[in-house]
Write a structure and sequence with these properties.
alpha/beta, Rossmann fold, 6-stranded mixed β-sheet, 4-stranded antiparallel β-sheet, 8 helices, 23% strand, binds adenosine-5'-triphosphate, transport, nucleotide-binding, ATP binding, nodulation
Length: 265
């Protein structure tokens, strides 16, 4: 039997479209490391089918938030829902809807691209044949079908990142988290990666939370959450961010929102 969401941050009314359930809903989450507050009463949504940028400088709390959503850390305050599933009370259902690309690279360099993907598919209970079909379909979409048999070690940094995205999608999640995925990539590889993820949002209506401090990765139409020193400083559409700050360019808006504190950090 499929587990049903027990509670959602945006409860569905009778007849409301399923899209009303956010891919991710974070409410009033605080997290401390000893005396240091890494997240302070954080609330944010990632609507289904949206590209939401989590924009914050170093130390803002982005990775800590990802660690809470993925259950690496237990959220002892507030609530986190993935597709309406509470990650504390319904972790299996919540995590089945979730794909993650962590900041550190985690592919096995000595295995082939395909074997890395099949290993991950098996962990999700996907049979060999179905896993292989899904892997090849996603590799083709990512322009990497001809590299399936290559050892990961022989790929470029950008190609490895694209394989990590493919891996995160093997089990057909509805929410994809990416933690500063373009770190270390050249401009062309970064553009290819952003394009791959934007295509997913457009074609498959996946909700994406893209953590970054690189303004150029964000474009008009995106949703933005500005996180600084553990607190949400602003949230809304790209256009709302400019209007809120009275600027005509996102870099200027960001500086206004985090102000001199970012420079002093
Ligand atoms: N395991 C930990 N123990 C103690 N403090 C931590 C730990 N992890 C993170 N912190 C602190 O929590 C705050 C938020 O860190 P976090 O890594 O979440 O930020 P970030 O936005 O991901 O930064 P970056 O862009 O540098 O990766 C920082 O002050 C950091 O030093």
């Amino acid at each position: 039997m499929t587990e049903q969401p027990r509670e959602t941050a945006s409860p569905r009314g009778a007849g409301a479209a399923p899209a009303a359930v956010p891919a991710l809903a974070v409410r009033d989450v605080t997290h401390t490391f000893g005396a240091r507050k890494a997240l302070d009463d954080v609330s944010l949504d990632v609507p289904a089918g949206s590209f939401t940028a989590l924009l914050g400088p170093n130390g803002a709390g982005k990775t800590t938030l990802f660690s809470l959503v993925t259950r690496l850390y237990d959220n002892r305050s507030g609530a986190i829902h993935v597709l309406g599933y509470d990650v504390r009370r319904q972790p299996a259902a919540a995590l089945s809807q979730l794909g993650v690309v962590f900041q550190a690279r985690t592919l096995d360099l000595e295995l082939s691209v395909l074997d890395n993907l099949l290993y991950h598919a098996t962990l999700h209970g996907i049979g060999f044949g179905a896993g292989r079909r899904r892997a090849m379909e996603l590799l083709a979409q990512a322009g990497l079908a001809d590299r399936a048999r290559d050892k990961v070690r022989n790929l470029s940094g950008g190609q490895m990142r694209r394989v990590e995205i493919v891996r995160a999608l093997i089990h057909r999640p509805r929410l994809l988290l990416l933690d500063e995925p373009t770190v270390g990539l050249d401009i062309a590889s970064r553009a290819a990666l952003v394009a791959q993820v934007r295509e997913l949002v457009a074609q498959e209506a996946i909700g994406v939370l893209w953590a970054t401090h690189i303004i150029e990765e964000i474009q008009p139409g995106d949703r933005i959450v500005v996180l600084h020193r553990g607190r949400v400083r602003a949230r809304g559409s790209y256009e709302e961010m400019l209007a809120q700050t009275g600027t005509d360019e996102l870099g200027a808006a960001f500086l206004k929102l985090v102000g001199d504190e970012a420079e002093a950090a």
